Amino acid sequence: MEKMSRVTTAHSSSAISCRTMFCHLDAPANAISVCRDATQVVVAGRNIFKIYALEEEQFVEKLNLRVGRKPSLNFSCADVMWHQMEENLLATAATNGAVVTWNLGKPSRNKQDQLFTEHKRTVNKVCFHPSEVYMLLSGSQDGFMKCFDLRKKESVSTFSGQSESVRDVQFSIKDYFTFAATFENGNVQVWDIRRPDRYERMFTAHTGPVFCCDWHPDDRGWLATGGRDKMVKVWDMTTTRAKEIYCVQTIASVARVKWRPEKKFHLATCSMMVDHNIYVWDVRRPFIPFATFEEHKDVTTGIVWRHQHDPHFLLSGSKDSTLYQHMFKDATRPVDKANPEGLCFGLFGDLAFAAKESLISSDANRKPYPGGDRRYPIFFFKKPDPTEQFAHVSSALSVFETDLDSNCMDWFVKTAQLYLLCGKPFAELCDHNAKVARELKRPQVSTTWTMLRIMFSDPANLTTPGLNHSLSKLGTLPLMNSFNMKEISSGIGTESRLERSKGESRQDNLHLEPGTLHISNNNEENEETEGSEGQAEYMFGDAELDDDDLYSMEQENQTEEQEYMLPQEAFQLRHEIMDNPSAPEHLQQDKADSPHVSGNEAEVTCLTPIESFSLISISQPLFSPHLPASFFCPIVREMLSYYAEQGDVQMAVSVLIVLGERIRKEIDDLTQEHWYMSYIDLLQRFELWNVSNEVIKLSTCSAITCLNQASTTLHINCSNCKRPMSNKGWICDRCHQCASVCAVCHHVVKGLFVWCQGCSHGGHLEHIMNWLKSSAHCPAGCGHLCEYT
């Protein structure tokens, strides 16, 4: 006792450090606590239990409490607290379920004082009473809280939360008999230590476990809680029902929360995973941290303000095996880096634009009183510290609305609902989607689907007889893959020629993508095709081309078939091309039989575009008889990128899913993931949940397929005994009753089950709907007025 007293006295007289500093620990820390006079800090973890002194330049190790040849699990600490009334008293929560107290005044090396082993599982939290020396409270994973009198060998009270594990317990600073406890199921309970049989108040604070809580040091009614839902909430406990007055949204699960001394609206938080920083929030401005400490390289496990009346120094321990003292003036201020400009498009094309506005107002030269009461002299008012003020940055928001008719997105919704992405052969999917796009007045998209069917369909599944020479109207274009030289020969060698019916539209151009088909069809390069004014139209195989399916036509002012008359003097004669290869044999024969062709000049009086095909000179076959699917992949990749850049990610993702492995390897995973996320976001904005889920299921990106796998567990309790149900059936294991029985037909509900959130009765969706059409009372007879929305 005397030895430790001398150490403490010597420390009290030494200067305390006033700068940011740190020291390396022997092992990761789980919790830290500071003594009453802020001169020493205790660090506890699974493999560390030491006391450090805060000297002027550095942390100095003063005492190692892990002594003995074989340290027991009592030294493996989940939490630690230093008594604020008795400077020699510590308490730890052991991972083996023990609650241990330590007396630093003992002369022996082993400072262990009391050992309580009443908890059956890990103790998560210990808390001393703020004014009662011998009262200690603990909360355990077994769901119980115990109050110990350190003058006795066992607990004096046991509190059962009737719930899952206790995560945190905290005595109220202002109310002597009150403490709060947080639980794994999201509830917070407030207890009176004089009544261990039942809590005074319980409310649901978070969705998911509540990891921490802290009473406000000045305002007796405020309780801050933090949970796995990434939120910090401040509750007003003075009302009959707990009222949420502030809420801060963080970026990770909240592991610790501590109110900042002397600052009513400031609190510090650290996360349980992912985020290593410590944040100080002003709860009145919850969207951006007031200050940030970024020194730790791993998860911060413990935070404590150095002194209960000093807001300028924060101590922290981390899994990176470091202990830090943070000086508040060295903290990063995120608001200084905040961008006051913003731009966002609304769902229907509205544009919102925020820009920084000048802070100079017309009465900026007026100097108002720092306080509102003029009865006191000005020198009584304390000048505010600029470092404790949020930066005043304001922006002006402008919203530009668009005409709803011009930016109607009905086509997007209908397309998403009508598109088929799987379940049918590839050709049928393309035809169906092309039809959907055509009906929605989107000809380019319809053409794209048709071309995809042409490029990627399997030619083995299609029959290709000779040309049908009795066509009066072109049908669908045959498959490019089925185009070969033999079929050209058989089609050209026939005596009959395809004729167009009068009044039909003319195809002006046939656009062949580079690298796909090489046929000499330019009138300037081949004299034998000079029988038409424009480029010739070509038919490959036997399938028919519907003009509306593939190309947009010019049908105005064409009531009559245009005759293609070419006077002899229309073109200047050119020199003879000596090295021109001879045409195929059947072309030569056809040429010999024709009285209209003589030498290098074309004396044909009238040739239809289809007839001119017979006069094509093919220099050599530049492609294989059957084009592989990979032949078209580069142009399809460019097409998908084009649609994505134009903002039509719906088309890009739909084609990506329908083509599947044919194109997926051509596009990198990050690009695919970006397209998927953009399309899914749009679908969810329009509340197209079923389509969104189908897209997620059909995707092959691992980052996308996991989207509908998170938070999909539904925990069911028996409606009779209120106990959790197993996953084996509809019969409760405890009471052996059917849990989901329809209140109307009294049969087990094995499909969609709808229930009233007021009385918890329900049944088959259709039965409940029909019942509530004629009656507002619950069909179970409980008397509750149910409402179906």
Can you characterise this structure?
Its EC number is 2.3.2.27. It catalyses: S-ubiquitinyl-[E2 ubiquitin-conjugating enzyme]-L-cysteine + [acceptor protein]-L-lysine = [E2 ubiquitin-conjugating enzyme]-L-cysteine + N(6)-ubiquitinyl-[acceptor protein]-L-lysine. This is GATOR2 complex protein WDR24. With 789 residues, the chain is an alpha+beta fold. The protein has 13 helices and 35 strands. The strands form 10 sheets. A 4-stranded antiparallel β-sheet has the order 1-28-27-26, with no helix packed on it. A 4-stranded antiparallel β-sheet has the order 2-3-4-5, with no helix packed on it. The longest helix is centred in the C-terminal third of the chain and has 17 residues. The chain is globular and about 95 Å long.
Q: Which of globular, elongated, flat, extended, rod-shaped describes the shape?
A: globular
What is the average of the pLDDT values?
A: 76
Strand tally is 35
Distance between the termini: 71 Å
Integer-rounded radius of gyration: 40 Å
Biggest sheet character: 4 strands, antiparallel
Provide the structure class.
alpha+beta
* Strand line-up of the largest beta sheet: 1-28-27-26
Strand fraction band?
A: 15-25%
Number of helices: 13
Low-confidence region ranges: 1-14, 359-382, 460-564, 579-623
As a percent range, the share of helical residues equals 10-25%
